[in-house]
Specification:
Layout (H helix, E strand, L loop, with lengths): L1 H48 L3 H16 L14 E4 L2 E4 L6 E4 L1 E5 L5 E3 L4 E9 L3 E8 L2 E11 L6 E2 L4 E7 L6 E9 L2 E3 L1 H4 L5
Antiparallel strand pairs: 1-4, 2-3, 4-11, 5-10, 6-7, 6-9, 7-8, 8-10, 8-11, 10-11, 11-12
Length: 202
C-alpha cells in the first residue's frame, strides 16, 4: 500500500510540474503576442498619420470585408483534421484551481498538418517562441490573426497571403506527443472569440 501511495504522490507531483510548465509557456506566449501586436499597431498608426486618402480607403475596405465575413471564415486547419481542445475565455486549468484567461483557441490535429490563412492579408511578423514553436501574425486592415505553435513557416514578414494560403505546419510537442496549433483573432486591441467568426463545423 505504501508503494502504491508513493507512486500516486510521484505521479501527482509530475502532473503538477507539467501543469505549471504548460501555464508558464502559455503565459509567455500570451505576453509575446501582446507585445508584438502592440508593436505592429503602433507602426500602423504612425503610418496612417501620413497615409494618403487612397491608402486609408484600402484599410477601411479591408476592415469592412473582414467584418462582413463574421461566421463564414474557413478554419486555419481544414475540418475534420482538427478539434478544439481549449476554448476562448476565462477557464480553470484541468487538475488545478488556477484560472486563466485564454485569448484564442487550441486546435489539436495530426503531425505535420498544414496551417492556412483564414483571409487575405499582410504578414506582419514571423518569430520563434521557446516552447511554443514559430508564430505568424497577419493583418487584415485593423484586424489581426495569430497562428502559433508551428513547426515550420512558409512565409516571411511583408509577404502578401491569399485566403487559404499555406503559412506553415503544426508542431508536435516532443514532451507530450500532442500536435496543437494556437489561433487568435484581434480587432485592434480587442481579442475576439474565433468560434463566433469561423464557419460552424459540420
Amino acid at each position: 500500500q505504501k508503494a502504491v501511495f508513493d507512486k500516486l504522490k510521484q505521479d501527482e507531483a509530475k502532473i503538477a510540474r507539467e501543469l505549471q510548465q504548460s501555464q508558464n509557456e502559455r503565459a509567455k506566449l500570451a505576453d509575446e503576442i501582446k507585445k508584438e501586436l502592440e508593436r505592429i499597431r503602433k507602426a500602423k498608426n504612425d503610418k496612417i498619420k501620413t497615409a494618403k486618402k487612397e491608402e486609408i480607403d484600402i484599410i477601411n475596405k479591408l476592415n469592412k470585408d473582414f467584418a462582413s465575413n463574421k461566421g463564414k471564415f474557413p478554419w486555419p486547419i481544414p475540418m475534420p483534421n482538427a478539434t478544439i481542445s481549449r476554448h476562448f475565455g476565462r477557464q480553470t486549468l484541468p487538475g488545478s484551481n488556477t484560472e486563466i484567461d485564454v485569448q484564442g483557441i487550441d486546435l489539436t490535429t495530426v503531425p505535420g498538418q498544414g496551417v492556412r490563412a483564414i483571409f487575405g492579408g499582410l504578414v506582419e511578423s514571423v518569430m520563434s517562441i521557446p516552447g511554443q514553436g514559430k508564430m505568424v501574425i497577419i493583418s487584415h486592415g485593423t484586424y489581426y490573426t495569430v497562428y502559433a505553435n508551428l513547426s515550420t513557416v512558409n512565409v516571411k514578414a511583408q509577404d502578401k497571403v491569399q485566403e487559404l494560403g499555406n503559412i506553415g505546419a503544426a508542431r508536435t510537442d516532443p514532451a507530450t506527443g500532442e500536435t496543437k496549433v494556437y489561433f487568435q483573432m484581434n480587432q485592434d486591441k480587442v481579442s475576439l472569440d474565433p468560434e463566433l467568426w469561423l464557419v460552424k463545423k459540420g
